[in-house]
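User: Protein folding is very new to me. Would you mind checking the protein record under this note? It all follows right here:
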Amino acid sequence: MDGDTIKIKRKQIRLFGVDAPEMNHPFGKKAKWALVSLCKGQEIRAEIVDTDDHDRLVAKCFLPDGRDLSAEMVKLGLAIDWAKYSGGIYRGMEVQGVRKKLWLADARQKGRMYIWEQYEKRKIRTGESATAASDEIKSKNTTA
């Protein structure tokens, strides 16, 4: 589905404790395809822990060799720990600079949805590529 949601037997399952970029955000497609690459042809074990606000099941998902999909996405630098839900268990696995790279996901976690809105408006208004729009908004919202 995307970088933090998979489908098992026609059920959408949100990976536990992490946040990946949306498909239309910078690195969104890369995150999706990385997750597809990890899962393709594999039997995924899902331990359901909750249901989210979008009625998706939230689960700790594991590859046949026991690797945690959430941890693998974080280690790849294509998802960030969402401590509100994970208790911070993936934070130490984050690659250096990932919160700047995935700045829209980081903004969501901090409740700064106005940054998302600015990003979306900029893309629509100018027809610019996602990267150009993200670079401009990031530079406007970066503080020292």
Remarks:
- Residues 130-144 have pLDDT under 50 and may be disordered.
- The first helix runs from residue 28 to 39.
